[in-house]
Design brief:
CATH architecture of the largest domain: Sandwich
Structural class: mainly beta
Largest sheet: 8 strands, mixed
Distance between the termini: 79 Å
Helix content: under 10%
Radius of gyration: 42 Å
CATH class of the largest domain: Mainly Beta
Number of strands: 41
Number of domains: 5
Strand content: over 45%
Length: 594
């Protein structure tokens, strides 16, 4: 197919242009419907005032392919026709008056019967002999081209749209002189209001109950007017009751199609398992054709799947009697709903029981259980971790065999001195904590044990650290600790010098004085993480806002128990804490200060 660049590139003589109004329009404006299978004839006309100097034009046409098919197979040129089949009416007549009949070219373009389009229909001047320099085609009510369609219905409506149109006023550089005319579209049968839903599609054909489903709807405007309308998605809650899910609005021009996802997504938590029909229904006042307003599809809601699993368990291969042995367990929710379950770690006897709560779909959790092997008979033991769902009516773990996992460890006799750290934890107001303000005085309690057979003295160190630094909290001696006995030492942890809004990890170690230690593996214990909060960040979201102030007020009024409302760390929530939080919120005190 020719382009205007290739058609006009050989010409070097410019045509003078003048400002004018040019209109392309469909004739007749309303074409009366004909029987299905019959030819429908439509013309495109131009109104161009004198001096328009038009040397080329092109149009793209669109109709509703369900009503009109571009083309008529009985014609030599099946969808577009022009004067003598060689050139268009408008420029052909003008060139013909110059003494030659073949100084224009006409291109029928391309038709797409599925999309209902005719594109790149064009005509251009390709010769210049016998023309007077500076003249060009113009005129009122002049025919550009004749279009042919085949009717699919005598009564259905379709717009006849000129979706794009251009005319050209230069022989040398047509792209630089491309002009857009006014456009008056036409109609096949009388214009109507009509909107349609082509499809509704779920993100999956089936989901477990509680799953999230994205619903996608495709809407279409086959009518004559720009329309704004609502599409609502439903499912058939019962055979006769349609339950609305979501609604969304569309604004479409004639023959425009648009696809949208309903938002938010559909949460099927409250939908009983079963097979359902999904329906999308368009609503528009004055719609003359309700038959195309609905599209349906199906979806299956399956019974929810409950499945908890112990995916991994690990421990040191050997340990000495009296060691504190870390046993690492990984559990996972492989089902479809958030669950609570209990994890039991055992050998010949129970080691520990952990409740694991609010585990979401596909979430994994890592647990560490500390096994105190004091008094354990030396031997090789199988360590088992098992997970059991909390009892909820109707809930059954539907996948067997993945609830249990095992590993083995050999416990050997202890030899000589053996000091072990049993526990290390931060305390404030008589409770173990996981976060603190820098204004608080926090204690770190470390418990050590003599696992050996002789009395020992030892030194206990406590630390906090993060990825960038390690800080010594303190050092204390433990003197004359008898065999098999424990001792607890308390450190005052000065966190005022630490960085606010930062997480630190606590650890402690013990060193025997004057004796070798037969088992150094249990000399150190890492507690876990403690966050040094921003001062006044009661809800620990990393920012100071009115919600923090509200929590202090509620704690002051005894309506809630909130340890972090005690900003000054004096073990009660009073008006001074409220004042401090107000000053921090107002920027008069820094949340990074004490």
């Amino acid at each position: 197919m020719y382009s205007f660049a290739s058609i006009l590139c050989c010409l070097t003589v410019p045509i003078a242009t003048a400002s004018s109004t040019v209109t392309f329009w469909v004739q007749p404006n309303i074409t009366t419907g004909v029987a299905a299978g019959q030819k429908v004839t439509v013309d495109i006309y131009i109104n161009a005032s004198e001096g328009s100097a038009i040397v080329g034009w092109e149009v793209n046409i669109k109709v509703n392919p369900d009503v009109l098919m571009p083309g008529n197979r009985t014609l030599p040129l099946p969808w577009v026709w022009a004067e003598s089949g060689k050139a268009g009416y408008f420029l052909y007549d003008w060139c013909k008056s110059g003494g030659r009949n073949y100084n224009t070219t006409f291109e029928a373009g391309t038709r797409n019967v599925t999309a209902g389009t005719m594109t790149d229909v064009l005509e251009a001047v390709v010769g210049w002999r016998n023309f007077t320099q500076g003249t060009g085609a113009s005129g009122m009510n002049k025919k550009l081209v004749r279009l042919y369609f085949t009717s699919k219905s005598a009564t259905a409506y379709s717009p006849i749209l000129i979706t794009e149109a251009y005319y050209y006023t230069s022989l040398n550089a047509p792209a630089d002189d491309q002009r857009v005319p006014n456009i008056i579209n036409g109609h096949y049968n009388n214009p109507v209001h009509d909107v349609a839903v082509k499809s509704i599609t779920p993100s999956a054909p089936s989901v477990y109950r509680g799953g999230m489903v994205t619903l996608s709807v495709k809407a279409f405007n086959p009518g004559a007017y720009n329309e704004t309308f609502t599409v609502t998605a439903y499912y058939n809650k019962t055979a006769s009751i349609w339950q609305p899910i979501r609604s969304t609005n569309f604004t479409l021009t004639p023959l425009e199609t648009q696809t949208k996802d309903f938002w938010p997504v559909w949460d099927t938590e409250d939908v009983e398992p079963g097979n359902y029909t999904l329906k999308a229904n368009a609503t528009l006042a004055g719609d003359i054709n309700l038959a195309n307003n609905v599209a349906t599809t199906t979806i299956e809601i399956e019974q929810p799947l409950h499945d908890v699993a112990v995916t991994a368990i690990s421990a040191p291969s050997t340990a000495t009697v009296g060691d504190i042995v870390p046993i690492n367990v990984t559990v996972a929710n492989l089902g479809t709903e958030t669950v609570n379950f209990t994890v039991t770690v055992s050998y010949d006897g129970e080691i520990d029981v952990e409740n694991v709560t609010k585990v979401t779909k596909d979430e994994t959790r890592d647990l560490t259980v500390q096994w105190n092997t004091a008094g354990v008979t030396p031997n090789t033991y199988n360590i088992t971790a098992s997970a059991v769902l909390w009892a909820v009516t109707g809930w059954v773990d539907r996948v067997e065999g993945n609830n249990i996992n095992t590993t083995s460890i050999t416990i050997t006799p202890g030899v000589g001195g053996d000091a072990a750290v049993l526990s290390v934890a931060p305390w404030f107001k008589g409770q173990v904590l996981s976060a603190a303000y820098r204004a608080w005085t926090v204690q770190v309690k470390v418990t050590v044990k003599n696992n050996g057979a002789v009395t020992i003295s030892c030194t206990v160190n406590a630390y906090c650290f993060n990825a960038t630094a390690t800080h010594l909290i303190g050092t204390q001696p433990v003197n004359d600790l008898p065999a098999g006995q424990n001792a607890t030492v308390t450190f005052n942890w000065n966190i005022a010098d630490l960085t606010a809004n930062t997480i630190y990890t606590l650890k402690a170690n013990v060193t025997i004085i004057g004796l070798s230690d037969s088992n150094t593996a249990n000399n150190q214990l890492i507690y876990g993480q403690v966050k040094v909060r921003l001062w006044g960040d009661v809800d620990d979201n990393g920012a100071i806002n009115i919600l923090d102030l509200k929590k202090v007020k509620l704690a002051l009024s005894l309506l809630i128990v909130e340890p972090f409302a005690d900003l000054d760390g004096d073990c009660d929530v009073d008006i001074l804490d409220l004042k401090k939080d107000k000053l921090i919120l107002s920027g008069l005190l820094s949340p990074y200060s004490r």
